[in-house]
Amino acid sequence: MSNNTLTVTSPLLPDLKEFYSMLEKIWESKWITNNGCFHNQLERALAEYLKVPYVSLFTNGTLPLITALQALRITGEVITTPYSFVATTHSIWWNGIRPVFVDIERGTGNMDPNKIEAAITPQTTAVMPVHVYGQPCKVKEIQDIADKYGLKVIYDAAHAFGVEVDGESILNAGDMATLSFHATKVYNTIEGGAMIMHDEKTKKRIDYLKNFGFAGETEVVAPGINSKMDEVRSAYGLLNLKQVNASIEARHQVAICYREALRGVNGIDFWEDTPGVKHNYSYFPIFVKAEEYGMSRDELYFKMKEQHVLGRRYFYPLISEFSTYRGLPSAVKENLPVATQMANEVICLPMHHALSEKDVQRVIDCIIHK
Ligand code: T4K
Q1: 158 lines ligand 1 (CB under 6 A)
Q2: Is 0.90 topped by the overall pTM?
Q3: CA of 307 relative to ligand 1 center, distance in Å
Q4: Closest by CA position to 264, among listed 367, 135, 133, 363
Q5: How many Cα atoms sit within 13 Å of 363 on the Cβ side?
Q6: Are strands 152-156 and 168-169 parallel, antiparallel or unpaired?
Q7: Does domain 244-368 have CATH number 1.10.1040.10?
Q8: Residue-range domain boundaries for the chain
Q9: Which end of the chain is more exposed for a tag (fewer CB within 10 A), N or C?
Q10: For 246-296, how does the pLDDT look when each residue is reduced to its tens digit (9 = 90+)?
């Protein structure tokens, strides 16, 4: 990679000196994982920051999805979106459940609530929507359908760290929500993730499940997994939490610059902020309308690449197009016209806290000067 390469993201890193001093404490205590002091401190700090009642930390954002399905004893079929990272559908598959894809809405990239009812069968037990790019799903409409048919709702909120609607965390929607703290996310613990739940009883059960099902030294209450966050990454997470607001604000400024520059460009669509929503600016997707723009999405993508501007085509191909899933009846293109179109038009532009004005201008120039 050349020195002047602009990548789609860059991790928020804690101050090294502060991190060393946290590491010294861990070394002194010799307690390096299994509900350590920094782990517990981070769970409390995140619950407060995110305005949610309970947080359970995990080693990544995939295992809380798998564990949520286990905890709620989901079986049969789960309705989900094809417009996401593969981990969403993989978590369903790993539980021996059949994923059923429904189409998305043009305005948010999220599961279209109007498409859910037609996909429900006697085997359906849950819905797994994604707040893609941190755009809030239509949670009330989804909950109304779930209540009507007695379905559970698990939100893959991997992108939705800190997102609020009218002052309330979007993470409180549904039966459970999960987060990813991967290096590429707005808030990272290198690898990491979390589950959000509403009550203490569920939190306790999840804490058992992420520790092999142990409920004490000699008792195993369920066939759990090992997905505990260690002390080193918890300490790192505590430090990153102190600077995440500044990082989100820096991303906001990048979004403002992109929008100002691209508003007049024919054939380049993007989303504005939604009134009442506190966004986290985790991604900046643009949608290339080839005919109006005069160049296809892939032509622009590779032209940017030649100039060392590495956007990403998140989420192309659709999950439903991967060999594992394309044989499913719900995976056919005719069932997913909006998702298919968006996946063929999207480029996520470089978006992170460390982009300079010059960097942002380089991205804009790539798009404006064809
Ligand atoms: N649900 C959803 C909706 C998700 O998007 C994800 C993950 C999950 C669930 C599962 O959560 P985790 O189990 O991963 O916690 C990335 C991430 O690996 C993945 O976490 C993320 N979604 C997905 C959307 O993107 P890649 O393959 O695109 O990452 P990679 O390695 O190409 O990195 C992208 C760019 O980031 C690089 O060009 C440069 C920069 N980067 C990356 C890393 C890893 C750095 O500057 N430093 C780094 O250390 O998948």
Answers
A1: yes
A2: yes
A3: 22
A4: 367
A5: 29
A6: unpaired
A7: no
A8: 16-102+110-239, 244-368
A9: N
A10: 999 999 999 999 999 999 999 999 999 999 999 999 999 999 999 999 999
